[in-house]
Specification:
- The protein is an alpha+beta fold.
- It has a single domain, classed as Beta Polymerase, domain 2 (2-Layer Sandwich).
- The chain is built from three helices and six strands, in the order αββαβββαβ.
- A six-stranded mixed beta sheet has the order 3-4-5-2-1-6.
- Strand 4 and strand 5 form a beta hairpin.
- The radius of gyration is 13 Å and the shape is globular.
- The two termini are about 25 Å apart.
Length: about 120
């Protein structure tokens, strides 16, 4: 990422807290008419872990940057949860759905940053 973004850092910290895997930050700041400034994409091993990841992101963002998502969708099925923070959209997937939708590559011009897994 070209610039330090405290919200993105808090989101990544929340995902790492619950052992989110294969975190990618897509920097969309240089793309005109992008829906947001960043996508943060992550995999969880089960619906239960995906719910825990989403709750951890919400808690970490409230604590570290005093913000909460405008909307959260997908918590009931927890196979793909989307969290809308306006300038950042978080996608938490089961690995097979993440591979199928491959959203990190929908924005071909995005600057992609892989975050190493913590284990």
């Amino acid at each position: 990422m070209k610039e330090k973004n405290e919200l993105v850092e808090a989101i990544v910290a929340g995902l790492q807290e619950k052992k989110g895997r294969d975190i990618v930050v897509a920097d969309l700041t240089e793309i005109p008419d992008a829906v947001c400034r960043y996508f943060v994409i992550c995999s969880g091993g089960s619906p239960l872990q995906i719910q825990a990841l989403a709750h951890s992101v919400g808690d970490t963002c409230r604590t570290k940057v005093a913000t909460k998502p405008l909307a959260v969708d997908g918590l009931n099925n927890a196979v793909w949860v989307a969290m809308d923070f306006a300038e950042v959209i978080v996608h938490i997937f089961l690995p097979e759905l993440r591979s199928f939708y491959d959203i990190e590559h929908l924005w071909a011009d995005a600057d992609l940053h892989s975050i190493p897994n913590l284990d």
